[in-house]
Amino acid sequence: MKLIHLDALFFIVEFLGVFAGALSGGLSAIRHPQYKYDWVGVLGLAFVTALGGGITRDVILQHGVPLAFNDVRYILISLGGALVAIVFEHRMGPRVDRGIDVVDAAALGFFAIAGTTRALNDGLNVMSSILLGLVTAVGGGSLRDVLCGRTPHVFERGQLYAIAALCGSATFLLCNALELHRATSTIVGTLTCFLVRLLSVRYNWRTEHIRGRAALS
Questions:
Q1: Per-residue pLDDT band at 69 (split at 50, 70, 90)
Q2: How many angstroms separate the first and last alpha carbons of the chain?
Q3: HSE of 50, CA atoms in CB hemisphere, 13 A
Q4: Is the separation of the CB atoms in 68 and 54 below 8 Å?
Q5: 3-class state of residue 25 by DSSP
Q6: Do 211 and 178 contact (CB within 8 A), yes or no?
């Protein structure tokens, strides 16, 4: 019963991340400042954002066909998120940029914990679990950025993104080590990532530019 419960919890978090990722990817494509994407472009970038990190994670784990290709619910949920972006983007008006930040932060948190959970369930150690959580969290967005013709956002100086995912994964594993209920650990880890990401946007917390820092020294 415990295993079934943990599997159900994993899929709930994973599916929430897929929906939020597709919504974020779709909105980003529609609002892209340079390119004008049609339906194919918006749906394609939404699917890549929603499923890219999870597929990369499953390939690393080498458990056969990635879940996104083995469970039709992933495709349907991604499609739902993309369609919501297409239908409601024009109704959000000037609030759309703030909406993208919120949805993107939510997707980041869900994916970070889903990836860490999958690694933990497979018996990986703490460092490997954190790394796999990070790959799941930022993989889809990085692939989206590459397809849009730019350096992945996670590699550039800017507001906390990968660091937020790391904070969420580490908090989740700490709660798990303290033997809190897995659902509690999941909620706390997801909220940690979500809040760190949103606070970095709100207060413009930014990482340092290494080259400029070296020049000053």
A1: very high
A2: 58
A3: 34
A4: yes
A5: helix
A6: no
Mean pLDDT of 72-100: 84
- 206, β-bridge pairs: 159
Sequence-separated (6 or more) residues with CB below 8 Å from residue 181: none
pLDDT at 154 (0 to 100): 85
Measured between alpha carbons, how far is 167 from 133 in angstroms, rounded to an integer? 10
Instruction: Taking the CA atoms of 11, 41, 142 and 25 in sequence, report the sign of the dihedral they define.
Output: negative
Phi, psi of 206 (to 5 degrees): -135, 150
This prediction has a pTM of: 0.88
When divided into structural domains, the chain yields a total of 1
Q: Phi and psi (nearest 5°) for 71? A: -135, 110
Which pair of structure tokens corresponds to residue 87?
């239908």
Contact 84, 23 (CB under 8 A): yes
What digits encode the pLDDT tens for the residues 21-42?
A: 999 999 989 888 888 899 999 9
Structural domain that includes position 160: 2-216
Measured distance CA(100)–CA(171) in Å, rounded: 24
Percentages helix, strand, coil for the chain (3-state, rounded to 5) are 80, 0, 20
pLDDT band at 1 (very low <50, low <70, confident <90, very high): very low
162's CB contacts (< 8 A; 6+ apart) are: 134, 137, 138, 154
Q: How many CA atoms lie within 13 A of 135 on its CB side?
A: 19
